[in-house]
Amino acid sequence: MIKTAKKPAKTASLASSAKNGYERISPADLKHCEEVNKSYLAYIAKSKTEREAHDEAVLLLEAAGFQDMRQYEKTGQKLSPGAKVYRSSEGKTLMAIVVGKRPLEQGMHIVGGHTDAPRIDLKPNPLYENTGMALLDTHYYGGIKKYQWLTIPLALHGVFVKADGKKVNVNIGEDPADPVLCITDLLPHLAADQYKKSLGEAIPGEGLDVVAGSIPTAEKDKKEKVKHNILALLHKKYGVTEADFQSAELEIVPAAAPREAGLDRSMILAYGHDDRVCAYTGLKAILDLKGVPEYTSCVLLCDKEEIGSVGATGMASNLFENASAELLNLTTPAYSELALKRALHNSWMISADVNALFDPMYPSVSEKRNSALLNHGVCVTKYGGSRGKSGSSDASAEFMAHIRRIFDRGGVVWQTGELGKVDQGGGGTIAQFMARYGMQVVDCGVGLFSMHAPMELAGKLDIYMAYKGYLAFLKDGRK
Ligand code: MN
Ligand code: MN
Questions:
Q1: Rounded to the nearest whole angstrom, what is the distance from the C-alpha of residue 449 to the centroid of ligand 2?
Q2: Closest Cα partner for 420 from 370, 353, 351, 458?
Q3: How far is the CA of 353 from the centre of ligand 1 (A)?
């Protein structure tokens, strides 16, 4: 045995730590964490659809002094550094902006999340009667595991738009005095055939019809008396007829309210964390932004992400580019196409979307060292996609270095995380659609358990650190 003169050099600082965030947070931050989560609970309780999430966000923005950008577009009145505006598209996709000190041509700092969530939509001709019951035919939206949506209390949210353009808001099932809706499942006693099917095939898409009622109308001449009674109830409450379903957007969502979860209250169980948790923390970051940022701050609350960002309110459309053109026009003496292209190219973006947490119940689908852990901080994902990074938007090492600098300087507890094992599956966000402009984009958001389930589980510390990270990113002066 050789006697060593010196103690071996400490190497601990060379390895990255994977400590629980609660061991790394200051008492002041912990207090702030609870406040941010409380405000998130209040927001998400009222935001069960993309339209509701949009409307609640507009209320918060207006209360904080943000003005409708369309008013400026109409008058041509210019926006100066420090100006706070928002821009709505069809009451679904929303953009909040604080004009920065530098010209837009030098780029924006963008945090973009989405407010649509997996759900079950009503078909355009949904109501029918069968065996003395009224049922509503549905078409699910987004990637759901269908069996999870059976036998739980459901609410009906959305709008009827009548032929004369009058809009009627619908919200049934949230007030404790309201009735709820439900999709039935087979009793185990008669499930011999169902048990033999695979999980994905056991419940067909056409098997998600909602039970709506069972009392026949007293009117003698009517054919489908139960269906007619439901129509009469809807007409009484909303002034609508059966034809009005054709110009409606009605969504079936879980009726349950968001709740604190865990005996230590360290989590939140809620419908629609994906992606209202990142959309809200982004929104709160721009609401709390003090002073005039160096670069123009922009927070996006997008629609249609869950079905591929398609359509006029999705990020695969020209919506963002067009809105940026309007913003450029309002912040420069003379609009130019070249300046717009430069503004988009020079922008930095956080694609604020959720990721999957490592689940000890399902260890085989994740690779532990590259998975996000519950309440270990906001999760930064360099690339998504599936198999050989197919469909991924891969953030550059240079941009990752900027994110590290911004988060470490801002006291943000963060971690890296991939979405599952290499060949297990995968997913994408709006990152790829924004990266088209040549801007720097990275995925960064809150890790979840049970993503896309009726109730998803997220950690409070992770939610708070998303807020803190987005705020530090919006404020950053690239120095
Ligand atoms: Mn998402
Ligand atoms: Mn999703």
A1: 12
A2: 370
A3: 5
